[in-house]
Amino acid sequence: MSATLAPSPAETPALAPRERETLRHIAAGRTYLQTARHMGLSTHTVDAYLRRIRAKFNITNTAELTRVAISLGL
Questions:
Q1: Alpha helices, DSSP H only, in 1-74?
Q2: Among candidates 39, 30, 38, which has minimal Cα distance to 65?
Q3: What is the residue-averaged pLDDT of the chain?
Q4: What's the mean pLDDT in 9-35?
Q5: pLDDT of amino acid 11
Q6: CA 5 from centroid of its chain's CA atoms
Q7: Ranges for the HTH luxR-type domain (predicted)?
């Protein structure tokens, strides 16, 4: 059984500023609606940002999103 390690900084996909902000809110435990309201966006836009983040890091769930946020210092 091998543990998944955080990518090294050289291998870390770049996130747009709004993607980083969205990831920070979700990792803090906020819902899509709470994140959308705080950022002045629709929930559809929050969902689109998170889909792009998941695709960039090849992750599938919120726990992995939180792990990525921690590894990025968010």
A1: 17-27, 32-39, 43-57, 62-71
A2: 30
A3: 86
A4: 88
A5: 66
A6: 16
A7: 8-73
Quote the CA–CA distance of 69 and 63 in Å, as a whole number.
10
Structural domains of the chain in order of their starting residue, each with its CATH number: 15-71 (1.10.10.10)
d(CA 20, CA 10): 17
In single-letter form, the type of residue at position 61 comes to N
Q: Who's near 34: CB < 8 A, 6+ residues apart?
A: 25
Reported confidence tier of residue 1, pLDDT bands at 50, 70, 90: very low
Token pair in block for residue 20: 């980083």
Look-up: residue for tokens 């993607």?
19
Neighbours of 63 (CB within 10 A): 10
Tokens (6 digits) for 5: 């390690």
61: which DSSP letter? Answer: S
- The amino acid present at 26, given as its one-letter code, is I
Top-confidence residue, 74 or 34: 34
